[in-house]
Amino acid sequence: MAAFDGQSPAFEILEPRVWRAPIIFNSPHSGSVYPDSFLQTTRIDLEALRRSEDSFMDELIRGLVDRGFPVMQAHFPRCYIDVNREPYELDPRMFIGRLPSFANTRSMRVAGGLGTIPRVAADGQEIYRERISVDDAIGRIEALYKPYHRALRKLVTQTFEAFGTVIVVDCHSMPSVGLSRDEPRRPDVVIGDRYGTSCMALVSDIVEQTLIGRGYSVGRNRPYAGGFITEHYGNPAHGAHAVQVELNRAIYMDERRRERSERFSDVIDDFALLAEALAEVPWGDLGTMQAAAE
Q1: Angle formed by the axes of helices 201-213 and 264-279, nearest 10°
Q2: pLDDT digits (tens, 9 = 90+) for 128-184
Q3: Which helix (H) or strand (E) holds 233?
Q4: Residues near 177 by beta carbon (within 8 Å), at least 6 away in sequence
Q5: pTM of the model
Q6: First-to-last CA distance in the chain?
Q7: Buried b / exposed e along 94-109 (16+ C-beta atoms within 10 A)
Q8: Is 109 helix (H, G, I), strand (E, B) or coil?
């Protein structure tokens, strides 16, 4: 596709020469290419903007391609546009001009400043010096959001048609400490399956058991139950499964310096083990419930 900043592709899909299993690994929030036109509108510096990134997540899963698993990753940053939202979750207070009548302006994510075009960065700081145009927002959705989801949907469909089922593993990372002091200590990993609605329990159970076996503490759905991607692409009754994996950044990086830690290579190995564990699931067990009943 065309370069979104004049140089970098907006996203890429890395497909293996031989597919190991119907499992797609996706990293929608690790993008770190910031258009100059965007940086000229921000009131906070690049360092503050980058705290919103799922830093290095794309690197942690990239090697899975050589093991037979497709990997999709965004290059644009989530604070520029967030593909893990509905396409038009937009805050009218941010824009000059009238939003489309179908825009979702009242979601909890919009209220928190984290809509499709985020108003705040990960630490709660306002991103923009002044309001931006509605045309700018719609332009980002048309040029980045929609092509990203068309490509992901095509990959999901291709996988399902080849195997009769598909699992999307949506890979994210979270700050080790939340913004609220009242929030309990975060585990090493949070599995999000929309409270059991985005995938069969078997998928979440394997993720949990594999990571616990590697020494991780694991929670489910709190504080992250999965976003738009998990909800939209997970339809277990029809053989499509989506699970979100949130990895505590303190496990693999120095959060303050944004540098890889000594455990970085170990985490790469752990993702490989997770991929292999999921690949061992009998695919027939993940097909449509109707087919299973027959």
Answers
A1: 140
A2: 999 999 999 999 999 999 999 999 999 999 999 999 999 999 999 999 987 676 777
A3: helix 228-233
A4: 183, 186
A5: 0.95
A6: 43
A7: bbeeebeeebbeebeb
A8: helix
